[in-house]
Amino acid sequence: MTANSKDDSNLSLSTDYRPLELEKEVREFWEKNQIRDQLEQREKDAKGVLGYVEGPPTLNGIPHIGHARGRVMKDIRYRWKTMQGYYMPFWAGWDCQGLPVELEVEKLLGVKNKRELLERVGEERFIEECKKVILKYHKLWVEADRLLGIFINQKKAYWTYLDTYIEREWQYLKHAWDQNLLEEGHYVVAYCPGCQTSLSSAEVGYEGSYKDVEDPSLYFKFKKAGTPNEFFLVWTTMPFTIITDTMLAVKPDAEYVKVKVDNELWIMVKQRVEAVMQELGITKYTVTETTQGKNLEGTKYDYPLKDIIPAQAELETQHELVHTVIGEDFVDVNTATGVVHLSPGNGEEDFWAAQKRGVPVFAPYDDEVKFTRDAGVFNGVFARDADYLVVEELRNRNAFVAVKKVTHEYPTCWRSHHKLVWLARKEYFLRTDKINSKVLEAAEKIQYYFDEPKNRFIAFLKEGKPWCISRERVWGTPLPMWTCQKCGAKRLIASKKELTENALEQVPENFELHKPWVDRVTLKCPKCGGVMHREDYVLDTWHNSGASPYARFTDPEYARFVPTDFLTEGIDQTRGWANSLLLEHVILTGKPEAPYHAFLFQGLTQDAKGRKMSKSLGNILETSKLLGKYSADLCRFYMMRKCSPIDFMNFDLQELNRRPYQVLSTLYHLSRFFLQNAEFDNFNPAKFTLERATQKKQLKDTDRWLLSKLQGKMEEYTAKLERSEFNFAVAILEDFVIDTLSRLYVPMIRKELWTDDPETFERRQTIYAVLHYTLKTVTLLSNPVTPYLSEALYQKIYKKLNPTLPASVNLEPWPVPDSSMRDKNIEEEFDILFTSVSLAYAARQQAKLKRRWPLSKIIVVAPKKTTQALKNQEPLFLEMVNVKTAEYAPQVPEYVGGENWVSASEGNMYVFVSGQRDDKLLGEGLMRDLARRGQALRKDLGFVPTDVLDAVHIAELDEDSKRLLEPFLEEMAELVRTKKVYLHDSRNEVEAEWHESKLDGKRVYLNIH
Ligand SMILES: [Zn+2]
Ligand SMILES: [Zn+2]
User: What is the pTM for the complete model shown?
Assistant: First the structure.
């Protein structure tokens, strides 16, 4: 590499494209020359600022290829916008706290649950272990970023567990508190018995959290009070909730009946009688007495388990509606019996039904979701383990009807996969439901690039549920709420300073804003002078990371960088970071505004067979391991090219070395081809510029066509990047490199470079100027996608030819199209040209006439516009089709036809080629065949393409061939880049190493030196 380097070996391009070696070299170059830091220093000269906040990866696992895909999208934007002249604070960030980290540490420590953790390990040591774990994973992430070529600034990373960050996170809560959006209350929340904490409703809805589980399907009956044989028939899949049963509910406007079974009367909704009886296998029954649901309201029932749950008997004395039928519209009469039992301690709707009637909530659970002493004989039993115990107790009391097993979808914990339990608990909530209209207004203003993820996000936001932010865990941002033991007054603390200044006792030196230290701080109640203790909660980790726009910056930085320009994360962040960022920002600012202008939700990455990558399947591709064996550029190119960023991508290692390798290798070899020829002719890009060539009118149509194409591609490419259509953007590059440059342009000019004639020196310099401009532009445009290859080509070609260039390709300005080079007419002419050439090839193929063999005549029958275009480009046309003369006609000439002519057509264009060859054409064709072999032999023997060799010897051609070939020997010498060609009857005539070759079935021998 050039900068500060005198080692010339680094300046050469190896014969083959070997990405792994090249990437190592480039990485060292970047690091040694601090290229990333140089970009950071360009802030002053930037033409504008684009805000950015890193979506912080959680430091609880090893980075894999799915992470890599998202990180490449971020890096693309950074490199490209930086080249456009913008400054972007592309600074890293790490999500350090929360349940995922705690669970990882619990696993390492071999603890099973929170109680064991607190007893055996203790909070202080646990927190130290959490910090160790995040540092361990941090190293792995930084290394993966390094290998992948992610230009994120690691030095300016934010860490969500630091006091400075937490203090600023508290500011969000202060704003919520001041606006009465932060509330404490009993609510029914989803609770994970494994993690021993509540979950937010967002977490409950995570992809994949609903699993098929087996539960009891129980029909049971509660006796109507004061009757000998009348019962309410009820159904549940959670028999344990009968322990907390408080009321029954019916739908007021539905029709209910009594069903006579044996000598009992069962009360249920009319429309379900037949189905339920069938399910229960009861054939003999009669239906009597129809009545409206509302007539059942107020009916008492005998709760059957009072004898073993004394607290249930106690409840009846507390409120008259306990163990009474109520009417509720939410009762679904299309399933089960239309009579539902309500457990306000276990169900959200049940809870609200009790709340509005003032009925007490009975929730006798501890933190492990085991029943407490209040649950009588069930004391100490885990809720879900009580299911069959309850069934047995009902059976003993003539309250049992039937039980089966049912498999149904039920939410499980996204982390630990335990079945969730709904429980009434005291929690802290952000009343985001109250600001829902502002949130939705903000969400509508965001750019999402694609409709599907947008609709999904907005539909989720519309749910607008309160956000349960309290977690009963350890390693998290402490909820900064202190409550007076005496009068219940609450105080929210918003900074470390405020806390230490108001503490009742001196705060120790090693104090940090974490449990257990922060729990030890007590305050004096401003109302009654009593002692205030902190509420023993930490915050939802999504609140932690969602605070990043404010918490990761200083005030002036926040003012400059937020709202940010663009963020991108996985589609799973719809309910995660994208949501928490938005909610918190609306709370902080009070405005209907998101902290980001645009959000690209990425599809997830799966294995080659389309399966989710998971530890259990063992199909996770770890980034660093993968990049030890495979090129980062190839991975980057492949991941961006294969599908749209919002698609789920099946990552198949087999595909890396196919098309992606072909494309990058082609760019590499084209660049190398240019350099070799340019160096041979001492090309100086500062002297032989495109401007000079234009002024001197040295550009041929081929050049003007290429330059025009490039302007269009440049524009399209940038537009696709702007729309986050990375796959289409990369396809444009691919197409340009493979088709336009390699397949079309280079073959058209190759022959012109195949000479060192001083007379064509200027022309060769012009071609170099065109190739230099074109390939350098492509190198610059590729930099966001394949930064290693771009940097290598930049250093080893462009910087080598012109040492005054910037130190890195990343410091180059983004290429912009030059309209003066755009020429639509010439592009159209060349389109016609290429179509007619491929028709001529197709025609030749029918008669097995090789493309190398010159033919006498081609006739193009087409409308005038088409033939005019070909006339304009006739020399090039004849050369490409390898035919001596062309004729153009509006109709097929009469003399055309018969076996001497072959033809092909497309649309209204017909091409006829004469297949007749005289001695001259045969001789030239033979010469071309042999020249081709000579060229291949040169290459095989390792001669540099630009060297002019001494001689080609050809032996053992038959007499006829020799006669035909004789007149073309000089031309052949030129084509093979040798001084002279000699023909020999026998190999014995010259002492030489002969190489055997076959020509139309006959042996021929070549020597070259
Ligand atoms: Zn869990
Ligand atoms: Zn007080």
Answer: 0.84
